[in-house]
Amino acid sequence: MEKTFVMLKPDAVERNLMGDILSRIENKGYRIVAMRMEVLSDDQAKKHYEEHVEKPFFPELLEFITSGRVVDMVIEGEKAVAGMRKMLGATDPNEAEAGSIRGTFGFSKSTNLLHASDSLESAKREIDLYFTEKEIF
After folding, report:
1. Residues 31, 75: contact at Cβ < 8 Å?
2. How many CB atoms are closer than 10 A to CB 136?
3. Which of 9, 93, 115, 117 is labelled catalytic?
4. Is the pTM for the entire model greater than 0.90?
5. Overall number of domains in the chain
């Protein structure tokens, strides 16, 4: 079984989409093994998005991801990394597959509801940023 990291971003929380999104994850057969709601600090957000620090959109990304509550989760299941990425859909909701979370609920590329790890290596790094081993059941 793989573990991956998924974050509901401030727009998903503000739009009260948590229940719909969590239901989709669980109905697909994945297990939520850790979950927390928080407001990210600038330092947390910079660590999370460290590969984007030099990119021109980074200031806007940082402002958005720290603008409200997020839900951090560890999701477990068979091929969880690829499966969650497929469930989320393309980053740009206009290009996301119909029926995907972003295809159904998304409005814009910059406020795109969720983040999911893109590899097992990223998943390990991101899980370790947000959770201790003791918190994952």
Report:
1. yes
2. 12
3. 115
4. yes
5. 1
* Structure-block tokens of residue 124: 């390990």
CA neighbor of 79 nearest in space, from 43, 44, 116, 114: 116
What's the pLDDT score for residue 27?
97
Structure tokens at 67: 């603008």
pLDDT tens string 42-91: 999 999 999 888 999 999 999 999 999 999 999 999 999 999 999 999 99
- Residue 113: which of 103, 99, 98 has the closest Cα? 103
Q: Is the pLDDT of residue 110 over 90?
A: no
48 is catalytic: no
d(CA 47, CA 43): 6
Domain hosting 12: range is: 2-135
CATH number for the domain spanning 13: value is 3.30.70.141
